[in-house]
Amino acid sequence: MRTGLEGKSTVVTGGGSGIGRAAALRFAEEGARVLIADLDGEAAEKAAEEVRALGAQAGAVVGDLSRRDVADRVTATARERFGGVDVLVNNAGIMDDMSAAADVTDEMWERLIRVNLTAPFLLTRAVLPGMVERGSGAIVFTASEASLRGSAAGAAYTASKHGVSGLVKSTAVMYRDQGIRVNAVAPGGTATNITVDAAADAAGPRALAPYMAGVGRVAEADELAAAIVFLASDAASNINGAVLPVDNGWSAV
């Protein structure tokens, strides 16, 4: 498969661990230059070192990506080090506690929307002008099985990931004539460090339990990374506005 990623400037959010780290390493193997953005500075620097060990250029930016100044700093750093952003991977995200709508606290709702939806929006908005100027670019989001259905997570997480799906499709349509492609992967169960801290008597887990049996085999992070790299590559040159399930058929159940 000809990816066309060699030398491309790539930003991966949440790149210090899990799917983001796996994607960063995959991009490095394709010859891309990788800037890792993460809230965990130690993890980000370690992942950047792993990228360099593969012979690729790498850097790290630490901060809360739901803040506009951090999103702008990520974009500015990529411009200073690599000349801009050719590929953006909006991967960073957090899980809710599986609460049903009546049980979601204000704090939980606001945090999930801020991290899972506002943060990727801010970074997408920040990189688009440069992509438009160059007439090319690829943006890949990590959506979720919860962006496809109402039975994979709590109300806050589900709403945030449905928002991601809408943002992907809207941006793809509005910028497709300017050489920019915007897609997403929708992971099912994946082995990462994201945990669910649900109360034993919460309504959400009880309601969702009958549907969770369809999750099937839990994926490795590298399996998601492979799909992300594909969507960012020239091999997916006519794929735009897609939310690709990478879930071992869970979405088909």
From TrEMBL:
Which PANTHER family does the entry mention? 3-OXOACYL-(ACYL-CARRIER-PROTEIN) REDUCTASE, 3-OXOACYL-[ACYL-CARRIER-PROTEIN] REDUCTASE FABG
Task: List the protein's name.
Answer: SDR family oxidoreductase
Tell me what organism the protein belongs to: Nocardiopsis suaedae
User: Highest taxon of the source?
Assistant: Bacteria
Q: Which CDD domains match?
A: SDR_c (cd05233)
PROSITE patterns registered for this protein in UniProt? ADH_SHORT
Family, as annotated: Belongs to the short-chain dehydrogenases/reductases (SDR) family.
UniProt cross-references to Pfam families, sorted A to Z: adh_short
InterPro entries for this protein: NAD(P)-bd_dom_sf (IPR036291), Sc_DH/Rdtase_CS (IPR020904), SDR (IPR050259), SDR_fam (IPR002347)
